[in-house]
Design goal:
heterodimer, A: alpha/beta, Rossmann fold, six-stranded mixed beta sheet, about 20% strand, globular, B: alpha/beta, FAD/NAD(P)-binding domain, Guanine Nucleotide Dissociation Inhibitor, domain 2, Guanine Nucleotide Dissociation Inhibitor, domain 1, 3 domains, seven-stranded mixed beta sheet, 19 strands, Ras-domain-containing protein (chain A), Rab GTPase activator (chain B)
């Protein structure tokens, strides 16, 4: 029987390494050369179908620029099932930043989080500053997934998300919608949905 | 920081974050800064390390309290009224997608030395020891009158003019006993003192209707609460702001509010850097509150005492509820202001399992505030640890229209966020020059 699982995926990495472009390629198969920082996207969703019939729906959180001055809120990391930490292969400093983000994830996020290190802009290999060996070695030491991608050409993008989907626990509770990843973890009685108006209330003559 | 902004916002408390979020959605270019390295300012929720750093510098949290990360201890005890104004803002801005809410399990009121549940159903009302049998009938008539009230239908008014007649005269018309009046005015209308009794009944009516409709919405209690603590609220509005282009800087010292020769706002200075903006909004701590020197733009209106108490058991007499509000009406303990207890626990992901966090608070009336909350502390049973603050309540000295400096108010002693939203609406009106109208946010989630 096919089942759909929903997971929260957070993006991390220095500004301008192509975090949003990577997601735009994955979700909409688009690329925009002059893309500035994302405005108005709370999060994007995309599903990946696995061979066993399971579909994995990613709820993808972009940093919305809050990474720039180290101002990401704990809420961002909370209940993240997986993280894609992006660096730019043409900027060696961006790998150092990626290392910092991975340390931050290890400190703040759930210990079971799956982390993928992603070297973006592989289409600019001529200007490469980060070797594949260096990044791969680091990823192995830290137990991270690793891949190089090009949001511009699309190379490797779908592959890394599919690889993450395969690594996620398929025994997790099927989740209903946004924020539901956290509902599964919560204990005790069910939460309340503020968007659902109680019928009794809306008919209440006093509630005018 | 070299750019010029429309609005600089100082402090990431809930009031400032709601404003920042709404202003960004409106298209304003916002820079939001906080001197702390965490979100929330005075309305933050702290983990154990932050809590001990704040109240017991140099002392490590005891290991037996469990993992640091399991804690989110609120600094200000407030719950969200299910049908209240904050709920409306949460839904309209769609920040509910970042949050999850649970009910507060029960609301209790103190009377004659013991606590009783505020009835949430008719069945509970019939069994409630709060009223005798005849008083219950009188109360029933009173509530039927409120439920049936229609402004346009004089037949439902029973000779009462809500805009002219005092609440006292309404109570008297239905023959309600003083104990019942206490219960209605304090546990339902949520007044902190008795000043409302001799004022026109309309606001009391509105508050009781809000309470009963909130109670009806999810049952059990009129309150809801965000998982992982109240500190999630400012964070979610900050994210809204960021998504609409707001820039965030935490851990940023604010050294000076710069004004021109006429006293009009020019910018703020942090170290060697200066950022210019048309307007500034900020909490009282950025405008001289509690500091010597510099220009003071706020005035103290009173003080509130809050005792954060770590318990290893639910509060006795609350049917082992995982979360409660207890109101001690002022008349019951010979005070002018009510004492409130707000308790949450691991059900709301704010502490380790088998730990309960209760905050006892009231408006300070004497020079021995800790003694004033003793009736509240006594209800808690053994207290594992206690962190007490006495916080001045600041209010701005000017409306900001002449200098473009807009100061928000301190978090007051009420048990909910209605006054926070009033402050948001008030500041918005002064900053923008028009009433805050909530627009439904476009659905920007891309589904495929």
């Amino acid at each position: 029987m096919s089942k759909q699982l929903q997971f929260k995926l957070v993006l991390l990495g220095e500004s301008a390494v192509g975090k949003s472009s990577l997601v735009l390629r994955f979700v909409k198969d688009q690329f925009d050369d002059y893309r500035e920082s994302t405005i108005g996207a709370a999060f994007l969703t995309q599903t990946v179908a696995l061979d066993d019939g399971t579909t994995v729906k990613f709820e993808i959180w972009d940093t919305a620029g809050q990474e720039r001055y180290k101002s990401l809120a704990p809420m961002y990391y909370r209940n993240a099932n997986c993280a894609v930490v992006v660096y730019d292969i043409t900027q060696s400093s961006s790998l150092d930043k990626a290392r910092n983000w991975i340390r931050e994830l290890q400190r703040q996020a759930d210990p079971s989080i799956i982390i993928a290190l992603c070297g973006n802009k592989s289409d600019l290999a001529a200007r490469r500053q980060v070797t594949q060996e260096e990044a791969q070695k680091y990823a192995e030491e830290e137990g991270l997934m690793w891949a190089e991608t090009s949001a511009k050409s699309g190379d490797g993008v779908a592959d890394i998300f599919t690889a993450i989907a395969k690594k996620l626990p398929t025994t997790a509770q099927p989740a209903a919608r946004a924020g539901a990843a956290r509902a599964g973890a919560a204990t005790g009685r069910a939460g309340v949905d503020l968007n659902k108006q109680n019928a009794a209330t809306s008919n209440d003559p006093c509630n005018c | 920081m070299d750019e010029e902004y429309d609005v600089v916002v100082l402090g990431t408390g809930l009031t400032e974050c709601i404003l920042s979020g709404l202003l960004s959605v409106e298209g304003k270019k916002v820079l939001h800064m906080d001197r702390n390295d965490y979100y929330g300012g005075d309305s933050a929720s702290l983990n154990l390390t932050q809590l001990y750093r704040k109240f017991r510098p140099g002392q490590e949290p005891p290991a037996e309290l469990g993992r640091d990360r399991d804690y989110a201890v609120d600094l200000v005890p407030k719950f969200i009224i299910a049908s209240g104004e904050l709920t409306k803002i949460l839904v309209h801005t769609d920040v509910t997608r970042y949050l999850e809410f649970k009910q507060i399990a029960g609301s209790f009121v103190y009377r004659d030395g013991k606590i009783s549940k505020v009835p949430s159903t008719e069945m509970e009302a019939v069994r409630s020891p709060l009223m005798g049998i005849f008083e219950k009938r009188r109360a029933k008539k009173f509530f039927e009158f409120l439920q049936g009230w229609k402004d346009e239908d004089p037949a439902t008014h029973q000779g009462i003019d809500l805009d002219k007649d005092s609440m006292r005269s309404v109570y008297e018309k239905f023959g309600l006993e003083p104990g019942t009046q206490d219960f209605i005015g304090h546990a339902m209308a949520l007044y902190l003192d008795d000043d409302y009794i001799d004022k026109p009944a309309r606001p009391s009516y509105d508050r009781i209707v809000l309470y009963t409709s909130s109670m009806a919405r999810y049952g059990k209690s009129p309150y809801i609460y965000p998982l992982y603590g109240l500190g999630e609220l400012p964070q979610s509005f900050a994210r809204l702001s960021a998504i609409y282009g707001g820039t965030y800087m935490l851990d940023k010292q604010i050294d000076e509010i710069i004004t021109d020769a006429d006293g009009k706002f020019v910018g703020v200075r942090s170290g060697e850097e200066t950022v210019k903006a048309k307007q500034v909004i900020g909490d009282p701590s950025y405008f001289g509150a509690g500091k010597e020197g510099g220009k003071l733009r706020v005035v103290e209106e009173g003080k509130v005492i809050r005792a954060i108490c770590i318990l290893k058991h639910p509060i006795p007499g609350t049917e082992d509820s995982d979360s409660v509000q207890i109101i001690i009406p002022q008349n019951q303990v010979n005070r002018r202001n009510d004492i409130y207890i707000a308790m949450v626990s691991s059900t709301h992901n704010v502490c380790a399992k088998d730990v309960y966090v209760a905050i006892v608070s009231t408006i300070v009336e004497t020079d021995r505030p800790e003694q004033e909350i003793a009736p509240g502390l006594q209800l808690l049973g053994p207290i594992y640890d206690k962190f007490v603050t006495v916080s001045p309540l600041y209010t701005p000295t000017a409306d900001g229209k002449s200098d473009n400096i807009f100061v928000t108010r301190s978090y007051d002693a009420t048990s909910h966020f209605e006054t926070v939203v009033e402050d948001v609406q008030d500041v918005w009106k002064r900053v923008i020059g028009a009433d805050l109208v909530l627009k439904k946010r476009d659905n920007v989630e891309v589904e495929q």
